[in-house]
Amino acid sequence: FLIAQRRMVAFGKKLKQLQVQEWQGYYINYKLMKKKVKQYVQQIEASAENREYILKDFSRVLDKQIEKTVLFLLEQEGQLASRLSSLGEQHDALIQQADSMRIPEMQEAYRDVGRDLLKLLYFVELNAIGLRKILKKFDKRFGYKFTNYYVKTRANHPYSQLRQVLKHVGISAVVGTLSRNLADLQDHQESFISIYDHPALALPDPIIESINAAVDRLTNSTDFLQYLGKHALIPEEELPSPSDDNVDERYHFMSLLLNLANTFLYMVNTYIIVPTADSYSLSLGAAATVCGAVIGSMAVAQVFSSVYFSAWSNKSYVKPLVFSSVVLLFGNTLYALAYDLNSIYILLIGRLFCGLGSARAINRRYITDCVPLNMRMKASAGFVSASALGMACGPALASLLQTKFKIFKVTFNEDTLPGWVMAFAWLVYLFWLWTSFEEPSQDEKVNSVQQETNSGLGTRGLQNGVSQPLLSSSVEKQQNEDEDEDEDEDISEEASEESCKPVTSIMSAYKLLTPSVKVQLFIYFMLKYAMEVLLAESSVITAYYFIWSSSNVAIFLACLGLTVLPVNVIVGSYLTNMFEERQVLLASEVMVFVGIVLSFTLIPYSVPQYVCSALLTFVAAEVLEGVNLSLLSRVMSSRLSRGTYNGGLLSTEAGTLARVVADGTITLAGYWGMSKLLNATLLPSLLICICSIVATCFTYNSLY
């Protein structure tokens, strides 16, 4: 298996230089379509009455281009099917003769067919990219949503050639034949095990994994696992890269498990104090609304810790994780001792230290750099699931700590026990980390850092090599003087080596943020602000209006947290396959708006009103977060997928800043009195939500 995997890596290198000259005439003629768009612009300027003719003519020309490509695709599929049929006859003869010496030769023959299929998939993918760019350019030039019309009328029509590009049933049949025959030729051929009866028993061949990855990219399928992976904003390589061998050697399952455990414990640490933060503040002589500052102090420190941990991960993984554990152990101990020291300042300092121990940047970076490509999406989904589980377990654990006793004059009660429990948990984790974590060797680390810059370039170099006839030819490059800046950007942005290098400063990262990316980050700020206001002030609001105990608040928050994974299942498996992600995005923003409006106390406040509005706001915000990060992973520059100042860091900073502002709002609003606290904190949420909806509407067409 490892030998075959290395052959696939070598094939990825060779494919980068591949020039498909014999296929040149079968690509969608991107150059011709751009000239058509320019001609249409001139016709519109001459007479506005030409609009209907232009739409019909452009549809006809595009249909012909797609038909040419699809007919060639069917011809190539037929050739592959003929080769597979011939190999099938040889396969049957080999089994009857029981000639085990020819099995490697037969496996390699099937892999050759797989490589040709992979080449064909890149052909289809590049044509799909060209088609998307053509439609996007037409919409931009004419201000007409031609894309919606064209795709809706062609995608489901029984005679549409576009369905072959979108559905590619023939390709799936070829993949199925390859998978079955390669599985039959493995070492267990005498066990009579079928992949149809026991699909999990067959070790997947690397060529099949590469083909499946290409098919998934082509269809842009969004099953639950992929949805969670995008939710984590962890980049996924599109093609085998030269660094894949190093990644395989650096992978260590226990180290990955320790990273996920760190993610889980940190989220528990964040939310375990929420139900009792107000009562703890009161016991130290402060106002109940100081709970906003207590909860938010952790987020304030996290703004800075995310940056230095992200930079530290360039050199080591275990050292920052050990430092994080020690700091969190110390911070939770201070948080617990603040009760006996009767000091609100010790309480705040303890939470600041907890924020300084936030190693989520390390957790993301480890998955990116040290987990093999075929496991990265599962690891990303595990990262999101661990976060969601920790968010639910934190308040649930707090509800169990309803006791009071003293040991050597040290008080253990519902306020201090969360600190002591988390301090003990981090002590156990530190011991586990010290004994089980395997640090990748420095040589492998250096090689990976050097090659991660080139991996994106290798992918794009491959795509540019195959797509050269689609985008431009060597002769056409000399005629670029008559093209406008927009047309130049479409080609140069993906082709230049500079565009694949990671950024080295926060200002460089900011300059790469397009308007649509800025709107996505603002949406992330909005939803984190709304969620933090809801969660952080829950203990204060429910105690004031409904006289809820800390255990009741904890159970309520735990129930909210338990909705995260089911909601992601529904969105990832159903909604994003039924609707465009940008449609789900806008609908979720509207639902957050409705939830915030229903939360205002304009009439006598009741438990059903609070619970229903909180549930609506929280669930809508969770849906919005997943879809927003999924879109963000697509529209963000490739230079922000690696390095210290990556997309994950930017989204983390936006969310952390939102939590800081929200917790500060709660603390400041407390000076106006408890009766005005709820409306005073909801009003900024409402205004920010309205602004995000307006911004989304303005950038809606650019969210693909």
From TrEMBL:
Pfam families given in the database record: MFS_1 (PF07690), SPX (PF03105)
Q: Where is this region: Disordered?
A: 444-499
Q: What keywords appear on the UniProt entry?
A: Membrane, Transmembrane, Transmembrane helix
Acidic residues compositional bias: what residue ranges? 481-497
Listed under GO cellular component are: membrane
The record's subcellular locations are: Membrane
Transmembrane segment boundaries? 256-274, 286-309, 321-338, 344-362, 383-405, 417-435, 521-547, 553-572, 584-607, 613-632, 682-703
Recorded hits in InterPro entries, A to Z, give: MFS (IPR011701), MFS_Domain-Containing_Protein (IPR051068), MFS_trans_sf (IPR036259), SPX_dom (IPR004331), SPXM_SPX_plant (IPR045264)
GO molecular function: any one?
Answer: transmembrane transporter activity
Q: Where is the SPX domain?
A: 9-152
Show the ranges annotated as biased composition (Polar residues): 447-477
SUPFAM superfamilies in the cross-refs: MFS general substrate transporter
What is the similarity comment for this entry? Answer: Belongs to the major facilitator superfamily. Phosphate:H(+) symporter (TC 2.A.1.9) family.
Protein name as catalogued? SPX domain-containing membrane protein
